[in-house]
Amino acid sequence: MTTNQIRVRVAEVETVAAQIRRLKLVPIGMSGLPDFSGGAHTILSIPDGERTLRNPYSLMSSPYDTSSYEVSVLKAAESRGGSAFIHDKIREGLPITISAPVNLFPVDRRARRHILIAGGIGITPFMSIMRQLEHDDVPFELHYGMRSQERGAYWRQLRETYGHRVHIYFEDQGQTIPLKTLLDGQPLGTHVYVCGPSTMIDWVLNGARDAGWPAENVHYERFSAPPPGTSFTVELARSGKTVPVGPHQSMLEALEAAGIDAPYLCRGGACGQCETRIVSCAGAIQHNDHYLSDAEKAAGDKIMICVSRVDGSTVTLDL
Fold it and tell me: Do the beta carbons of residue 73 and residue 23 sit within 8 Å?
């Protein structure tokens, strides 16, 4: 459940790189959109036949200009409908609904220096973060890796805007981010941020840990799309309702389709807002979130209904 749903119109649609589209969203019936800080995201409600997909996207526009929002969307190879709709069907002038911004990847204002590490579409939250750091006159540098010039978005623009603070690496040219060099010998008070593919995030987190970085100085953002699986049934202990969950449907989506108001903020297994107690489970729990600890997952008494599911027949939730 989110509050402050906002009606917007798609004012611009632009292909900025192979399989990446930029959307500019302007408010309907409002003079401006809510304030946000660098690293925030919004959830787009995307029509897909008889259902509505709700996907999180980082706000990449300036936090100091809320006359519009901008997001970029990568067309996923195995799209569940949202990114495919945006690439194949969305047009300028289309009205859609978005959520009020939420920031799970904020700049730590205690830091004296910021190292930003992006991979592919993971550049998007750093677009607004860099505008904020530039505005605040705080030292930063960006290290941005992508597969090729054609598949990388905004790298020319970033070089022109931020100059020597931006470092670009193309995989097809044999270039890699020099992580060990970046992490070694940084001045006290430096923080590192990473967003990109899960393998890249793990690489940076493991590298920072091995280099002795304090956990509180390392920041990351990763959202997971709900993976497919076998069908099962959700039983709601409080209301007595029973809701079927399809193979390409998350528990949260199934509950929403049944008219049940369930909590969420990120819909990507990162924030913990949709954490729900398990009363009983006839099957194996498939934890796909990035919020619960390994011990909490092993205990089997809670689940993130936005991305996790059950390999079995039935799960009973405290709802």
Answer: yes
- The phi and psi torsions of 115 (rounded to 5 degrees) equal -110, 120
Burial 206-222 (b: 16+ CB within 10 A, else e): ebbeebebeeebbbbbb
CA–CA gap between residue 128 and residue 110 (Å, rounded): 18
Q: How far apart are CA 177 and CA 144, in angstroms?
A: 8
Q: What is the pTM of this model?
A: 0.90
Half-sphere exposure of 44 (CA within 13 A, CB side): 27
Do 162 and 134 form a contact (C-beta atoms < 8 A)? yes
87-144 pLDDT per residue, tens: 988 999 999 999 999 999 999 999 999 999 999 999 999 999 999 999 999 999 999 9
* Structural domains of the chain in order of their starting residue, each with its CATH number: 6-98 (2.40.30.10), 113-221 (3.40.50.80), 232-317 (3.10.20.30)
